[in-house]
């Protein structure tokens, strides 16, 4: 294994940011993989999953069982990881530009483009994004490990890679897969798949390519047992896709989770501000018109509560971990069987 440390110059004198990169070169001839975590600095389930995965990779390297190069970035955003306000970690948006760290990635037009020219960007968050694209480009498997607030485990997958990625969803024990295409705000997964959309079939290799944003449940789901479980899923994927040789790993059962186009995801929003009383949790199935949340907007008043009802039947995928909402706040994601009447192009959330 080779370790390097990437340095990202800050926007003011004397400030810079660093993050480690680990590379297992392998013996050659196999597919390659790139894994990164904590692009939103406070999302840690992927970080501890990678920590649990690393001993497996070191053992495979010592035994000569790694076929293709594996690049690991356990904590991809030192900028967001350092952003605290009044004691709370604020790792989703860059304080300086107010831009989501998983938006506005540089989009290459071809896999042959050299991403290094992107590194001369005007702000530190743009330089970080350009560097991550440069590190990941050319890998057959690209996984960006995130988490939601409170959530099932699920994947965002480019539609062009489905159903080829069913084995990945099964290997990682995912509960659901959300399929998307088009523009998603130039998120990292879009930057990873876009260069191949216009490439010849023999270069695109959609039947062998893996690109996904991985949502490892919720922010608080950080413990040793879950980390080991997720690490074993990642390792199983690498074995099944031929990056690592390991005869002891049994093939996964077929994927039986929910698969849905992103258009069917209902972003249920708060019609007013108040305290949230949830009546459902991730994994629950609901009927149209069922009570999802009660908002206590005027405590003590006879008419001080407002019920939010399900716009259609479906599966509760996520909900907020905080219990205070502002008007228009996202309360939960409900995956239905028909397109949402409020769906809009692009990413589901800012």
Automatic annotation (TrEMBL):
Superkingdom classification of source: Bacteria
Keywords per UniProt: Hydrolase, Metal-binding, Zinc
Cofactor(s) required, per the database record: Zn(2+)
Pfam families: AstE_AspA_cat
Every Succinylglutamate desuccinylase/Aspartoacylase catalytic domain range: 30-191
Single GO MF annotation: metal ion binding
Name of the protein: Peptidase M14
Organism: Mesorhizobium denitrificans
